[in-house]
Design goal:
268 residues, alpha+beta, 8-stranded mixed sheet
Amino acid sequence: MNDHPVPEYRVLFTVDIEDYSSRNDAEQRTLQSALSTMLDGAADAAELDRQAWERQDGGDGIYAILPAGTNVTPLMDTFVRELDAALGAYNRRRHEVAWSQLRLRMAVHIGPVHLNGAMGWPGQHAVQPARLRDSDPLRAAMAALPEADLGVIVSSAIYRDYITQGPGEPRPTLFRPVRVQVKKQSYTAYLYVPRFNLHTVEALTAYAPDSGSEGGDPPPPGEPSGPTPPLPRTSGGHTNVAYGAGDAFTGDKVAGNKNTYHGDHNDG
């Protein structure tokens, strides 16, 4: 008899409130309530059953494993678009006493995960989303685009198997490949910031992937990254863009446990 646990192939994503720890108690409470409402609204619009998500909730965000068979297209298309719109409306309202700006970093991955760990979700794929969410390239993109409300980073598996294959938005050309260094590992991932052209953000040049190994393998010892061609310049470092078709890239990437919940839970 084979007693080895069998992982389930699932979509994983996480969102995190930028600069949460610097807010006072009242502001943190307001941010939590606003984020919970936004996630509910975006999930409903995308027909993603939020009560069926496996979740680890923290004060500054959530980490979720979606039900088996979840369609990635509405998550990346409708969910992301509605979440960005809700953030924009919230950040321009500013009428609450405890209001403070709410910007989110979001990461999406897909792969086999173990759901029955004694203290959470063990395995490399369960670690990947938070590593992507907290990565330097995503932080650099958000710092370079202060008017942006949402920054999204996806693993190469999501980009290769879903973004480049369609249908739906965002189109592949709106993503920028980046190299993410995490301890002794190096991954290729893909950045997307709704309404902004990441290809003009010069701060991301330092994170351009080279032609080396991908998918979680460390680069060869002592081998430096190759030179990166300069990016075109624009005033202000960013421009609004329209959707269009694009080419495919390849690559891949990893996060910690907090309290785990299944189904409905009050984030506020």
